[in-house]
Design goal:
The chain is built from seven helices and eight strands; from the N terminus they run βααββααββαββααβ. The chain has 223 residues and is an alpha+beta fold.
């Protein structure tokens, strides 16, 4: 089971920023948690040089769905979020395809390739950039963002990342697998960027993963 949660704040933004460090102590002792990343987000959509200080995210890989639900519903972390955040959105994901590495491993086990092709699909792409390629990469960002923004079948997308400028990712939601495939292989702007990425050796490490969205839960706290 994989979950990715987005927390939105209208106040308590300084507290939220500090959780990028302090939440680690809670997550390290969470039962059933195999892998996690505390993530900031980019302003606007897709990659962005400018952070969104009103939205933060946690990506988690769990032993099972019970561990995921216990953390989201009952943990110390979730209790604190309910007191500080305006809202949270939790996506429950099943990996269907994943290649590449994140911190030297691929954290997403692919459990089953037999799934309903009409279900909504989520995509996570992430990369650690080569330091000498930062300017080239960021100069190409507007074109990449416009490509996904104008793609047919994309429902929502958000830039996420661990470190500004260097470790970047995108989480996107699509109507179905066909819409993802069409974008990946038929969109000329996207194809051009992928070819340029490989030719120019922008990434030190990268990962591309697809998921079926099993469930989504939204909570409004009004803090």
């Amino acid at each position: 089971m994989v979950t990715i949660s987005f927390f939105s704040y209208t106040s308590n933004k300084h507290w939220a920023f500090k959780q990028m460090y302090f939440a680690k102590s809670i997550l390290k002792k969470t039962p059933g948690l195999k892998f996690y990343k505390l993530l900031g987000t980019g302003a606007g959509a897709g990659f962005s040089l400018f952070p969104d200080f009103s939205t933060y995210s946690i990506l988690c890989v769990w032993d099972d769905s019970k561990s995921a639900n216990d953390f989201i519903n009952n943990s110390e972390h979730s209790t604190e979020i309910s007191k500080k955040a305006f809202s949270r959105n939790d996506y429950f994901l099943k990996p269907i395809k994943s290649h590449g590495k994140w911190d030297g491993i691929n954290p997403f086990n692919v459990y089953d390739s037999n799934f309903d092709k009409n279900k909504s699909v989520a995509i996570i792409t992430r990369a650690t950039l080569n330091f000498t390629k930062l300017i080239e990469f960021w100069n190409s960002v507007p074109k990449a963002s416009n490509a996904i923004k104008n793609a047919k079948g994309v429902l929502w997308f958000k830039g996420i990342g661990e470190l500004p400028f260097i470790q970047q990712a995108t989480f996107s939601i699509w109507e179905n697998l066909e819409s993802v495939t069409n974008f990946a292989y038929k969109d000329l702007n996207h194809s051009e960027i992928v070819k340029k990425t490989k030719k120019r050796n922008w990434y030190k490490e990268d990962l591309f993963s697809r998921f079926v969205i099993i469930d989504k839960k939204t909570k409004i706290f009004n803090n």
